[in-house]
Amino acid sequence: MDHYRQGDVLLIRVAQKSARARKVDREDGRIILAHGEATGHAHAIESPEADLYEGFGGTRFLEVRKPVRLLHEEHAILTVEPAIYEVRRQREYAPGMHGGLLGVPVRD
Q1: Predicted TM-score of the model (pTM)
Q2: Residue 10 to residue 88: CA distance in whole angstroms
Q3: What pLDDT, in 10s, does the model give residues 15-64?
């Protein structure tokens, strides 16, 4: 699959991660892709078969070596297949000041 979506987290398959990307530490043994703003819930992976990296400008990459489960308390569990994915937080757009658009986080 080329992409996965769970709430406001979007995983997009890419050919490779940035060469300068650095591994992100786990939180209590889990990879946290995003923390919920209102609930404190998290989009998380518990498997040792994946690692999260952060590259230039804060771009994040998820490297999955074997199928892993993406967990969240309010969403269905997703099985993510082996690949490298760019991790994005989806935003919704609302009319902003001066007729422009203002990106705001999706409420999860």
Answers
A1: 0.82
A2: 5
A3: 999 989 999 999 999 999 998 766 778 999 999 999 999 998 999 999 99
Say how far apart CA 62 and CA 17 lie, in whole Å.
8
Q: Which domain holds residue 25?
A: 3-105
- The overall longest dimension of the chain from CA atoms, in Å, is 48
Tokens of 11: 């995983």
For the chain, the domain total comes to 1
List Cβ neighbours of 84 (8 Å cut-off, separation of 6 or more): 13, 14, 15, 16, 17, 61, 62, 63, 64
Closest to 103 measured CA to CA, from 11, 2, 35, 8: 8
Give 94's contacts (C-beta < 8 A, 6+ positions apart). Answer: 101, 102, 104
